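Dock phosphoric acid mono(formamide)ester; give full complex structure.
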Amino acid sequence: HRHLLGIEGLHPHEILGLLDRAEEAVEVSRQIHKRKHVLAGRTQINLFFENSTRTQSSFELAGKRLGADVMNMAVSQSSVKKGETLIDTAATLNAMHPDLLVVRHHAAGAVHLLARKVSCSVVNAGDGPHEHPTQALLDALTIRRHKGKIARLTVAICGDIAHSRVARSNIILLNALGARVRVIAPSTLLPSGIGQMGAEVFTSMKEGLAGADIVMMLRLQRERMNGAFVPSVREYYRYYGLDAEKLAYANEDALVMHPGPMNRGVEIDASIADGAQSLIREQVEMGVAVRMAVLEALAANLPNN
Ligand code: CP
């Protein structure tokens, strides 16, 4: 592939190939000299129209660990603020001959559109509620390192499914690798058509968590709700916030995940986020490794390689 725009369209063997490559990148990242040179002389531009802590910094580190020259485009200080469009911004950057463009945008499909307008490789770092492919890959890597497999595990994805690109990419990837996927949410936070996406749907944490191997919590994305959030945050925490009592419904050796950013006391209790079953910090470490794997895989298809 020239781009990574989503998990949709990837074959299971391609997903597994990226996870295997990422395992090697974990080792590189843990060495004192954390460098490979597959992107030496290449230019990577990170273009984030939405805020990010984990994704942007890990793409920057991943590019640097592979030897690329990495530029972070400061969108808030750019001419986007003067009305320049996404396509004109991309065409402007494209004229500077980058090899890789890593893009996050608030509109679903924006990254696909942009990929058709530029001559470099494009990586989707999250497009609205559509896809966040590297998040799903890092989640799969984290799960596989602890459970030894993905197939036949029961994974419960809980919370704001309606607005979540993380949920969408994870449902596609986990199904491709043979997991049993569940979603748990109040009906107001379930997207239409969720039944056709390959996930069993629950509105009760008690029922949905029974027998779960992995409990993946999501943030309430109030910035995508236009003020119309039902139930209230207090009710939400009571019925859907992951605390010790609700986690006890899952398997005894269940592991807890969250893509971040977390809202402690809204979707997850601090004692669980920091507890023995939590993989949240490890997900961040795997984020760098997965992004190295993706950039390295795309490097093989860059011109003159
Ligand atoms: N998980 C995730 O995408 O986090 P950021 O928004 O901080 O990049």
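Observed: The two ends are 14 Å apart (CA to CA).
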